[in-house]
Fold this protein.
Amino acid sequence: MRLRHPTNKLLLACLAILIVIGLGALIESERPVWAGDPHRPAGDMTVFKRGFSTFETPAEGLTKAEFDRHAETDPLFEKSHVPLDGHAGAGLGPIHNAKACSSCHVLNGRGKPIAGQSLFRVALKDGGGTQPVPDIGFQLQDKAIFGHSPEATVERTWIEKEGLRELQTRITQPDGTELSSQTIARSLRIAPPMIGMGLLEAIPESDVLANADPDDQDGDGISGRPVWTIDSDGKRKIGRFGWKALAASVNQQSANAYRDDMGLTTATGPNTTLTVDGSPADISWEELDGVTYYTQTLGAPATAETSDSPLMRQGSALFDQLQCASCHVPSHRTGNNPNAVAKVINNQTIWPYTDLLLHDMGPGLDDGVAEEGLSSSSEWRTAPLWGIGVTQRVNRKASFMHDGRARTIEEAILWHGGEADKARERYQALPQRKKDQLLAWLNQL
Amino acid sequence: MTRLPRLVPLLGAAAISATIAAACTPQSQAAPTDQEVSSALVNNVVLPSYKKLVNATEELENALGKLHEDPTDANLEAARKQWKATRKTWEITETWAYGPAETDDFDPNLDDWPVSHKELAEALAMDDFSEETFAKLDTTGRGFHGIEYVLFSVDKASDLTKQQLDYLHVAVEDLEANAKGLLAAWSGNDGFGKADVEADPARTVSDILEGMTGCLDEVANGKLGGALEAGKDELESTFSGNTGADVVSNLTGVRVAWQDSKLQALVKGQDAVLAQALTDQLNTAISLAEALPARLNDKLEAPATREQIEDLMAAIIAAMETTESVSEKLG
């Protein structure tokens, strides 16, 4: 077609600009933000199932021998521990929070914020939450075996406030003394789901550090700070597991849970039956290694939508545009470890939506417990989001955030503050249709 | 895991002959919908089963009350018989333990295992056994197995101490309260049955199949496989010698979930051969379980018993694999 009038040329030029801008916007809103296949969040270990037993399902891709070992070690996770004869304090307790891993990790998923499925971390407010409470320490054991007293009992009351809820607690010691909330900080913790931990462990440390920006040198308001800790093998490593990333490995996280949550000491290696302080261990190395193996060989569920679905494209684009993805880093690549407990853990592109780093989440999530100074009280590890849409399918009243205060994923978004203030504000400014898109996308993870 | 294919060819042949017959049978009824399966699961399977459990715990409370008042051998025997009858009503529900039984802690309160011998011994050595004493026991000192441990620990009723009788009295009240709590959690408009299961019928089919697979796996590889490897102390219900009956009840529950929820009919509408194969395999497994010797734990070392258990495990695993095939078939 020939353009005979200059006005037409001008119109065409404007149209061309509009097309370019429009296409750009379209591409911006629907671009494949991250390469790969987010439908398979655990790569070859993805579990293609989204029912109540999803989190308990062994990872895909295990060899026959690996699958058999997973099945053999599975009962260790469900084993109810009891006090035993033998050395002093043998077996469960004497004080503890739970008697089995599965007591809190219900069906391998999140626990509810109720007694028996959650616990309290505590600290003195003086000193910024870095000091333990005398005679209690950093964790309140609210159960005890027969003949012993728990450290305290906790009364929990949820207070509704502008559509959200906050926890108020009364902690009473056996002699009737109440722990003052003026002087003692308390942080309720629910158990997170047990999925994909072998894969998170396999992300190279250099890749985790590549996302760290502790002094926010790029000025985007997002920092990301690694926790450096001493792993059970004595080496200095980045913490990856737990709400505050205090454990560097699944082995260490398991040993910590045995010790702090169940009052069970663990052997320090395959050739000893002793703990680190030289006393007889309640849990043999074989058992600790077994429960570690079981955990490492759990996968993560496939998303409900396939990677090329409109919802997947729109949701992930929104997630990116709101800058949720700055901390909930969508995708990582696992390393190649010749000693990996299962071959399929190596060289996987995974979609956990976490950077495994600590971020300041603002005063709303600051409950005053700073975990021995390894984190500040307002810092939390970016929680992985894979499988989040299956949470209430596994445990229908399970809730979100470290203390289960958020009853829905949207409430969890609204609790984001600090470094996530702007992301939350952007979410709140979205039209309802866009909010629904984002929530639908999150619910299919 | 198990490695027992000895009986599998036999089971396969039985399944094939039965499935040929099934394939030749005209289908006169339309397959049920997901909603019908969902409603049937709640109203024909789960709620009636928990009502039976509640009734049975009430009868156990009566039986233990009589024993408490008059500890004769006849009352001891009646209480033991009622414990086994009550146990049956619980074990049959294993397939639909998902939901409140698992997530609201009714399962550990009713049926934790193993028993905490040390704590129970200390509690029962107190001068008095009161409700306050009982409250200090965790779930490993309560529930079916706590009661079983005490009730089957003596040769005759006169050997039961006052503390043991008091314990039984308190423990059965707790058992009954938990059974009622579980029934309540599934009941009513806000209960798990209506508010969750019936409200989302598309999920029911996969839930039932997952529950069936989980129960079959637990029986074959957990209860039986664990006992073969570790010995009789690993057998649940070892004190009463009721393990074999537990297994029969577990497997019967799988069949109830399969048939009475109308899932079998739904699958038959899509693949009559597969549906019949699973029905036949479940029947075979139940028959083999019923043939296990009474007081299985005492005969665990006998080669013939071990062979029976291995055959049963193979039959259960065959049924489990077919259940997984059904899951794949239905997508």
